[in-house]
Amino acid sequence: MQYIKNAKLVLETGILWDAVLAMNGNRIVGYGMTSEIEIPANAEVIDAKGLYVGPGFVDIHVHGGGDYTFTAAPEKAVKHFLAHGETTILPTLYYDLSKEGFLEAIDRVKHVKETTWAGKAIGGFYMEGPYMNPKYGALADQNKWRGDILPAMYEDVVDAAGILAKVWAVAPEREGLESFLAYAKKVNPNVMFSVGHSEANPAQIQKLKKYGIGLQTHCMDATGRVATWAGTRACGPDEYCMTDSDMYAEIICDSLGIHVNPDLIRMILKIKGVDKIILITDSFVSHEQAPKALRHVTDLVFDHKGDLNGSRLTMDVACRNMMTHTNCGIAQTFLMAARNPARAIGMEDEIGTIEVGKKANLVFVDDMFHVDTVILEGKVLRQV
Ligand SMILES: [Zn+2]
Asked: Per the confidence metrics, is the pTM higher than 0.90?
């Protein structure tokens, strides 16, 4: 048994201050006020020094970080994010990969998941594509999946990922998409489909809802609208997400509000509420120079043309930015960075909140999300 003392425990319903949490092996086995829980004299004790102790972050949309992509060096990439409190990560594969590229990356990530300690943090895959609208998104010119949607192309990739493919992001307007959705759902009945890199109208999205569309890939980014009448405002995926209460909205919350303007972040928060927002990093690795005006910014990534190409965020920083841009408190921000993403990918029985029986995945932070300690399945990882 291990005990964490002097903790402000961030529970789903609020904060239990002056608390103790007990872990046995990789599980949480109890918690309560300091006055209620007796710590045995010979027990192993971790002092949280009055910090907030919350559920480890769940980052469902992340391509790489710390110079390492999940396609080339998944173990190093996982360790980078683990140090920032991300105890569940969905390595995200992009449509710039060919079929062979997908298969190789799936193999490499699976190997790390099955054979390394850090691999315990890999929850599965987020497939950003391959069937998206090539008009939208970073590296859109490198989309290798523009032509017909053919079983001979997608079946091997879907089979290789199996039930580890937690999310497939798709553009509902792609012709012939339904055969792909049906196949991916057959292979993983619990799969979540997400609308992304798309200009689909609400009717096109609604039509595919029966397959299990419940998420919008980086809301307000890489989306379009097709107007029926000149001078009127059309509705696309962003508007659909705002009106359908079932939909989760992913937000890339960078420090300047470049991906999503802070006014729009506040609007999404007002409409969707804290229960339907999922913070993501969408972190990417790139060594291209930032445009001159943004050279000082540390949490953005640019492509060779100087266009935005994802972020350099980690979830601790995304949480801090969310608090900076909105009136959210620490407990609400944890919901958006741990509980909601865990729910969206169907892993809420194991992770996402502090509850007896769940995995002992925890992060100690101060009141602005500076990470002090990370615990993965009961094993303490002190941050550098
Ligand atoms: Zn992405």
From this structure: yes
48 CA → ligand 1 middle, Å: 34
Distance 95 CA to ligand 1 centre (A): 10
Query: In percent, how much of the chain has pLDDT > 90?
Result: 88
Would you state the structure tokens that stand for residue 44, as one six-digit string? 């192993």
Interatomic CA distance for residues 17 and 239, integer angstroms: 39
Number of domains in the chain: 2
pLDDT tens profile 141-185: 788 899 899 999 999 999 999 999 999 999 999 999 999 999 999
CATH number for the domain harbouring residue 208: 3.20.20.140
Q: How far is the CA of 315 from the centre of ligand 1 (A)?
A: 14
Residue 178 domain flag = yes
Three-state DSSP class for residue 372: strand
Cα of 91 to ligand 1 centre, how many Å? 10
Q: Residue 383: what pLDDT?
A: 53
Whether residue 373 sits in one domain with residue 284: no
Nearest to 224 by CA among 237, 207, 211: 237
Ligand 1 centroid from CA 249, angstroms:
14
- Residue 27's SS3 state is strand
What spacing in Å lies between the alpha carbon of 15 and ligand 1's midpoint? 32
